[in-house]
């Protein structure tokens, strides 16, 4: 099986040091298991913001 993840980030030129991103893990909501047979989480969306000065 294959589990697909996608990520998109944005760094505006007008706000130096700021970054926002969104990540979609297990995009197609496949049932996947780790090496010990424990099910992995389903589709997950994460939002991140970061400011570095």
TrEMBL record:
SUPFAM superfamilies: Porins (SSF56935). The keyword Nucleotide-binding does not apply. It is found in: Cell outer membrane. GO terms for cellular component: cell outer membrane. InterPro entries: Beta-barrel_TonB_sf (IPR036942). Its main location: membrane. Coiled coil: none annotated. Gene3D superfamilies: TonB-dependent receptor, beta-barrel domain (2.40.170.20). Keywords: Cell outer membrane, Membrane, Receptor. This is Outermembrane receptor. It comes from human gut metagenome.
């Amino acid at each position: 099986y294959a589990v697909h993840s996608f990520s998109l980030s944005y760094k505006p030129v007008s706000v130096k040091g700021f970054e926002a991103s969104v990540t979609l893990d297990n995009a197609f909501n496949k049932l996947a298991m780790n090496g010990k047979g424990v099910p992995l989480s389903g589709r997950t969306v994460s939002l991140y913001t970061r400011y570095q000065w």
